Structure formats: structure tokens, C-alpha cells
Amino acid sequence: MTKTALFAGALLICGFADSTHANPEQDRSAFVEHYRKLFPTLSLQDYADGVYAIDPNARESWRAIEEFPPYEWAIEEGKTLFNTPFGNGAHYADCLPERGVGIAQLYPVWNGESGEVVTLAKALNDCRQRNDEDPLPYQKGEIASLLAYLAYTSRGKTIAIEIPASDPRALAAYEAGKDYYYRRQGQLNFACATCHVQNAGKLLRSELLSPSLGHTSHWPVYRLKWGETGTLHRRFSECLKQIRAESPGAQSEEFRNLEYFLSTMSNGIPINGPSIRK
């Protein structure tokens, strides 16, 4: 089978064959319907649990760990960092809607002025730079703790990403993210969708492949493999490394557009971050 045919097949699975006639909400409906057929006993809200929604045995162990989660310190550190003023006396809260509390479900957002997708992590670093502070590394450390705290304040709020119809650049960014998701790349010639759409619920070696629906709902996560809390874009880079593809880097335009697409597909799913994964 040719690469073109494989790509077309991935699009057809979720009803994305004719992007010129589908809008984001039609894409999302097709995405949800695909997983409804795969996992008919799950509700939309269940997908906030990620792979544990489809793995009852692992779910019990996960719930036990969540009783005393290893990311708890990250929430506390993030709260302290968030409430500590910059050198000029300004705060993160001064840069964010609702002073930053309970807003994680709204990100990424489209910034019409700068003409780009702005993730919550980027908004935090943009705030720092506007206040003469150095930007934080995007994959772990203080940025992960800040995101953990902000996600915690949004727990239970449903993802509500908007793509403004008045700005065609926003739709173009969404489409770019969708294209990246379905594009095969790397030495293994995999796309994100190869694992998480076409083969969701199947085993790859010893790992059960998680559904894409809800993928952005539970970040940042404490991964046992990492031994620390890390960001969604760190995981994006890791996935690309696993398929031997080049990563554009955390908070690159490609990754921000990808997050915009994935979060739009998860509209209506509650925020459940931070969380823990293997």
C-alpha cells in the first residue's frame, strides 16, 4: 500500500477525507463517533482518564496511586511560584484572564494580534518576558509545576477551545495541527494517528495504546518513567523520538498547532490534570 493510500485511510477512519468541506465541529463529531464505536461503554467524560478508561486492571492501580499522588508537590510548588511577584512587582495573574484561576480548559487560544496559537505554557513565558524575566524551559521544572497548579484549579471544567470564524488564520492553524497529526514521518513511517486512532486499544509490545480523545485533558503528568512531572510537549517530543522522527521542539509552531487540534477534538471532556502515567 502506498504512503498516500495509508494517509487517506487514516483520514477516512475519522471522517476527515474531505477537509475542504469539514469544519472543526464536524471533525470533532466524527472523532467522537469513531471512539464511540470502538469503546461503546465509555462516556465522553470517561476519556479524561486517558488509557485507564479502557484498561480496567491498570485503572485500579492508577486510582490507588492517585490517593497519594507523586505530583502533589508540583501543585504546591506551582502555587508558590504563581503567587510570587516578579522583580518589578507584577504577577503571572496580571497577564491572564480571571487572574489565571480556572482557565486551563480554555487553552490553547488563538491570538489574532500576533497571528498564532498561544498555549498556556507560552502565555506564562510571554508574561515573564513582558516583565523582564527570563523564559522557563518548556519540558519540565518550574513550567511543569506552574501548569500543574493551573490545571488543578480547572479540574472538572470541560475543555472549551474556540476557533474564531472571523479569522481564517485560526482555522489554518487548526488545519496545520490536524495535518501534522495524520502525517507519517520518521524511520518507522508512523503518524500520531497510527497508534492513537487506527490502533487505539491494541497492544504495542506490552503497552496498551491510548485513544486520542481526551489526550490533552490530564497534563502535565508525573510519569514513573521520568520520575518527575513533565509537559505535554515533552511527551510529543518523546513520541517522535520513538518513531525516529525529528522533533520541532517544545512550543514550536508545529506543536502548538498540534495541541490546538487535539484540544479542539477533546472539547466537552473535563480537565483532569495533573495526573500520573507509567
Question: Can you walk through the features of this model?
Answer:
The protein has two domains: 3-63 and 163-273, Cytochrome Bc1 Complex, Chain D, domain 2 (Orthogonal Bundle), CATH 1.10.760; 72-152, Orthogonal Bundle (Cytochrome Bc1 Complex, Chain D, domain 2). Strand 3 (203-204) and strand 4 form a beta hairpin. The chain contains ten helices and seven strands. A three-stranded mixed β-sheet has the order 6-5-7. It is mainly alpha-helical and 278 residues long. It has helices at 3-13, 24-38, 56-66, 72-83, 120-130, 142-152, 168-182, 192-198, 232-242, 253-265; strands at 109-111, 116-118, 203-204, 207-208, 221-223, 228-230, 275-277. Mean pLDDT is 93; it is low at 1-9. Helix 4 (72-83) crosses helix 6 (142-152) and helix 7 (168-182) crosses helix 10. Its cofactor is heme. It is found in: Periplasm.
